[in-house]
Amino acid sequence: MAGNLYDALLGGLEREDRLLLKDGTVGAVSYRAFADQCARLAGALLQAGLQPGDRVAVQAEKSVAALALYLATVRAGGIYLPLNIAYTAAEIDYFLNDAEPAIFVCDPAKLEALEPIAEAAGAKVLTLDPSGSGTLADAAAVAAPIAATSSRGGSDIAAILYTSGTTGRSKGAMLSHDNLLSNARSLVESWRFTEKDVLIHALPIFHTHGLFVATNVVLASRASMIFQPKFDPDKVMEAMPQATSLMGVPTFYTRLLQHPGLDRDSTAHMRLFVSGSAPLLAETHQEWEKRTGHAILERYGMTETNMNTSNPYDGRRVAGTVGFPLPGVEIRIADPETGARFGTEEIGMIEVRGPNVFQGYWRMPEKTAAEFRKDGFFITGDLGKVDQDGYVHIVGRGKDLIITGGYNVYPKEVEMEIDALPGVTESAVFGVKHPDFGEGIIAAVVLKPGAEMAEQDVIKALDGRLAGYKRPKKVAFVAELPRNTMGKVQKNILRDRFAGTFEAMAAAK
Ligand code: AMP
């Protein structure tokens, strides 16, 4: 592969009247109209002085114009840099100083707070509101549409996405035109997307899942989408009779399961439900299948690597696993310390190599070098195993591994036992400092409505199911687990909240 991602996704579609998307604000948008919008936005970026390789940082609400801005930036030879809409001015200050974008696009409502920050970082500021208006749209209305796509090599950078950075500084993952295109093609093939598909797009577009997986798969297969500004279970249910597929984080599925309208009839037009970005509880998978007759297809990826593995379209979709490596992607399990390869069923570091793997962290060559093995495998930071049948299992992030009294405990193993107890909805298991054991295990547990359980009930129920050192020394009942926008449980928040627990318990004795 070579050349500009834009040409592969939208090239040649400038005269195609086929529907690309339906949106609540701007209505139906054809491929032709969308390509035209991209050409005008690209023209506006060039007029604002964009040079090939310049970053265009964007903090804007989800809208068709914001989606077009991604492809316009790529077409003009720039590097698209989306920022979470929840970021505060102080966070934006860090990202703009780190990325040094030529252009910064933000919501007009935030202009007063962000313009001085962006200007100090050397960026030209344009605005884009949720309806698609603002100084960027004004500029696009009068700019000459870009005449030709900027010529780019396959390994040139098309986008930088900052990792969520739950520990330490957030790092900018550099993704090339080929990284994105190869993954889109691989997913189209694996998930059988065709021009007949209609995807419900309810994910944010500042993250790899909604921006690349969902959007690029639709474009690469010439499919269409029902574009929703955010996840709203009623709106998703309403769209299902006109749609064929949904891509969601696990929270989408747990929330939809609470919807009384979810059944076989309401999902009869759908052919595929995909879940990713965080672990899907096996219980959710099973309940979904019981209610709808559909087995959710779980896949695994990350900002740095795009998608790595997927449960099969045709074969058995096994709950609690993330399936097999995608075409062209190699996965291996290795000793986290030495990199020595582990065998089947052995838990270790998940390492990945393939055309999907990013080009490194922006301006962090040492950090990049530290996360690759000499033979090109990227060290994901996720711990897992490959089972006898070749399915990949994730047991947690490496940094979440608990070492208590010298023993390694994988939180997932404990969470699975607790989640299986009647009365429990879900749990998060983590380690905090313990005066005797180094780390002591705490379980934060969410009970089902109306269920009553005491701390000792949980601990006793695990007796005989888990070795003593794996059982929590403290169970805390919580109303809900802290999650970020992508549905990931934020264990760092739990660790902070319960940091002094065991010292306090020791002092009270
Ligand atoms: P992000 O870079 O925000 O997409 O986060 C990537 C991380 O999310 C991975 O390294 C995994 O820890 C986690 N993740 C993604 N998909 C899954 C999945 N299906 N099951 C478990 N964890 C997942």
Automatic annotation (TrEMBL):
**InterPro entries associated with the record:** AMP-bd_C, AMP-bd_C_sf, AMP-binding_CS, AMP-dep_synth/lig_dom, ANL_N_sf
Which residues fall in a coiled-coil region?
none
> Where would I find the AMP-binding enzyme C-terminal domain in this sequence?
413-488
Q: Where is the AMP-dependent synthetase/ligase domain?
A: 17-362
Which keywords belong to this entry? Metal-binding
Which GO MF terms are attached to this record? medium-chain fatty acid-CoA ligase activity; metal ion binding
- GO biological process annotation, one example: fatty acid metabolic process
Family assignment from sequence similarity: Belongs to the ATP-dependent AMP-binding enzyme family.
Per its UniProt record, what PANTHER family does this chain match?
ACYL-COA SYNTHETASE (PTHR43201), ACYL-COA SYNTHETASE FAMILY MEMBER 3 (PTHR43201:SF8)
What is the official name of this protein in its record?
Answer: Malonyl-CoA/methylmalonyl-CoA synthetase
